[in-house]
């Protein structure tokens, strides 16, 4: 039986690998974080943004939401879902809502500001989110676009709640 | 393309059929509703409880949560999930939380009282919930037990918010 | 003891009166609804938008959230809160979050799409929200801006879930 | 302008003082934590329970929810609320829900297990919660009973997510 720390790392690797396979790199998420937080965290750079994203991607409840959502996207692509669910996923039915709920749950782990940030980028389809939402590719990203938006929003929440550590980074150039 | 009303009915039938296949009948959920609400709704009987449950099972956001959760249970039983997800589902990992989040989302559609009611029966493992939670059967009900508790709790919420209609029922014996 | 229906109407009047006193008219909220939904509900006019808003303002859980938030704004303006709370309200502390949580709870009554819509207008400070957020007026609107955004978002959720009734309206010009 | 760390400590002291004034001591909350977690965390004692509670009481979003709820109870006792709100608070109206929503928000900061734990003790009126809910005392604890339940549930969530630190405590007798 793997330890808690081992599971955490295993889930993290699983997520990063799957995000990448589906066209989402850390720098794409960092770009959304910088778009959202630039005027609040002066000096925010990609390194710090990715550091915050990694904090999120190591949080167990966040990992669970992300793994579950990506799983459903992949299963839908493989045509492995029951007829009604397959239909919902293929049409990306606007009243489905489970994708958004998972994203809200994830972002709310980092406070309510994260939820409004998620809502904002989700509507804007900013950056990589626009590409993920492009139905012409044949890929099914019902959950992925919401989750990526929520990961970015959660990372913003982490930044907003860790001012001291960020000030240290700007003073020393070191993280952790 | 089916109409909204047709989809609603189709999802409803899909859910009732799947609940039944997995050992959950309407009367099992009604029993939880009566256990929870007996002292608040005097005269509450199985007919009224099932009426309230049917209201919940026709609400689209509730349908979506239920269909998604049951789907994941079935896929895990068929061994169709990725390794980390399969492991989580087979061990019913206590920190998973997506099952409970889906249930909280469902119950919160009917107000916050429904969420506390869900939490209560989930901890108690009342009635059918105890059976669903029994790991010795080999069935995977990671989502199902939470969803059934949440459906019951949501039905209680419907009862709490529809006093006038209930009074009419007690006066006339008729529903709707 | 007033009946449920009487309380509902009383709370509705209390809310509309307080919104107006604090500079928010029904047409201001309708403007946000139209901004958000124009491309999804073709033919959406102010009359239908206000109809949807009134649906929200008659829902008890929505009423409770709105009344509570406005109350706290008024009490802060009257200097009736304890020192730490007074400080939080006067500085509109960015990590406070209870205002946003109340708004998320309200909007989530109408599905997760409403939550993303709320997040979107909250960030944009669209229309009346910009005025409410203007600190130079001396007014305290810590909760009001979030609540108004959430009411509009919830009304959008109502519209998204009541296509049949809306089609009837466009066909007959009549509501209800 | 006080620093983030100073504010945190100030809010913590404000909360502990107000809980105590209203009849809630740390050991009362610890008793609920031990009731909930005894069979999951073997060896759980009051010291560790209070340590977990203090973690919760230092988390900003938790502090904000607690301060806001207690404030409303105190204002209602002083008769400072508007007529409809005063009526809701004095009758502890069952459909109010903002008290439970605040508690759900607080507990969900520590994962969904915390929400079901909160729902459970809220229904049971376990320990101090029964006393807080006793209307015969003339005190208004509309928010306090829910918040205390949520603080305990959140502390359980902290325990569930910090196994390594707890194992260290059992090995060394030292915390932090």
Automatic annotation (TrEMBL), chains A, B, C, D:
Coiled coil: none annotated. GO terms for biological process: lipid metabolic process. Residues 50-161 form the YutG/PgpA domain. It comes from the Bacteria. GO terms for molecular function: phosphatidylglycerophosphatase activity. It holds the Pfam family PgpA. This is Phosphatidylglycerophosphatase. It comes from Companilactobacillus versmoldensis DSM 14857 = KCTC 3814. The lineage of its organism: Bacteria, Bacillati, Bacillota, Bacilli, Lactobacillales.
